# Entry
Amino acid sequence: MILREDGTGAPRYCVLFDPLDGSSNLDICGGVGTIFSILEYNGQAARAQDSLLQPGTRQVAAGYVLYGSSPCSCSPSGRESISSSSIPASAPSCAWNATSEYPRQQDLFRERGQPQELPEGYQRYLDWAQSSGYSSRYTGAMVGDVHRILLKGGVFLYPPTQKSPEGKLRLMYEANPMAMIIEQAGGKAWAAPDQAVMDVMPTAIHQRTPVILGAADQVDLVMRHL
# Structure
């Protein structure tokens, strides 16, 4: 989407949307949401869509709407305001799809001499987290998991796998806006051990990326295992 300052003025902003994050939750009335990212329009780009290919550090603003089961006040005076708060530290929870299943799958891969589903570093972390009493808090919608982390702490993982070696989440309208929100609240967001999510230079609008984001202390624990 291209936004103009007025009805006849030159384009000023580009907006990317994930209109329905967590759509698989619709059949069970689970939480879903909308994610958006706003970038400045690049008038030098040959095509309007080329103006979108900017790293997350160039975002003007980002946000999400969570369609949940209860109302929530996010005004500056609201009890659950997250606009200027810091993510709580030391929360032993991990939002990760099938956290409890992958260690058993990994054992089967080892027994059969097959390549492991997860990179070794991620598996080390998940093994450690389970043995350390971490709870699994995965909603099936990134907006719900990130919202919980902003309020309660913890870490969100979507690593590369054999099936999705580049990761599954979309860089431009899922990972980047959520990374901006997390970092504004004092957290961290990484795409790889040596690259922050918002430093990734996009080459395609629908580009995918691995994601590790959440409270700074919890992200650091993941990175040590990687």
